[in-house]
Amino acid sequence: MKGENQIFGIRAVIEAIRSGKTMDKLFIQKGLQGELARELSTIIKKEGISFSYVPVEKLNRLTRKNHQGVVALTSPIEFHDLENLVLQVVESGETPLFLILDQLSDVRNFGAIIRTAECTGVHGIIIQKKGGAPVSADTVKTSAGAIFKIPICKVDHIKDALFYLQGSGIQIIAATEKASGNIYDLDLTIPSAIIMGSEGKGISNSVLKLVDQQAKLPMYGEIASLNVSVACGVFLYETIRQRL
Q1: What are phi and psi of 5, to 5 degrees?
Q2: How far is Cα 139 from Cα 114, in angstroms, rounded to an integer?
């Protein structure tokens, strides 16, 4: 886990959670007992933090320090508040462009998308707290440092983010192979947020029901889909082309 921020020890992890630190991964020794362990269990359930029970050997490989059966890996960045960010962008006078990632799971795809988003002037990337790729050392590396230059917002539920964006006058566009129309039918000159789905399942059906537009990329080969980071790049550069 080189390059990632580690916190070890039960009390230290509890205090980090209470202070609002974002936990990307939390490893707890199988069979961990005691009052502090119960306190940790209570707080991670309350905060909805995902964790894994692992053998002590796994923890010993993560750190040689006295971990007391708990090691947490924290995010290398601070996340932004979605409502504040949208307000700032709207007040700036620029035409909003946001990117929403629905359960994207591969950290390298995540990093590549962040890099392209920064290059294309995306105002912010929105991800869900649970289920998606973590902001890890691999994400930072693949983004070529772009992750430190573009705001990233973590939300409890993608659906809530959609409602807020729509209420702020921003159209929601789903990039999906299920669409009947293609990307070149869209008007991307108006305030927009583009949703990209996970590598395997695409955008969830419950999210698709809430979007304003759906669009796909024209495909002429035998392979039915593009890598998600490549597809994302096409959508973002078509947005630039229209806005130039």
Answers
A1: -85, 120
A2: 9
Q: 120-133: per-residue pLDDT in tens?
A: 999 999 999 877 77
CB of 53 within 8 A of CB of 28? yes
Model confidence at 1, pLDDT cuts 50, 70, 90, reads: very low
200 vs 105: CA distance, rounded Å: 9
Q: How far apart are CA 2 and CA 213, in angstroms?
A: 41
Whole-number Cα distances in Å, 187 to 87, 182, 192: 22, 11, 9
For residue 96, what is the DSSP state?
A: -
What domains does the chain contain, in order, with CATH numbers?
A: 5-74 (3.30.1330.30), 82-243 (3.40.1280.10)
Instruction: State how far the Cα of 63 lies from the Cα of 59, in Å rounded to an integer.
Output: 6
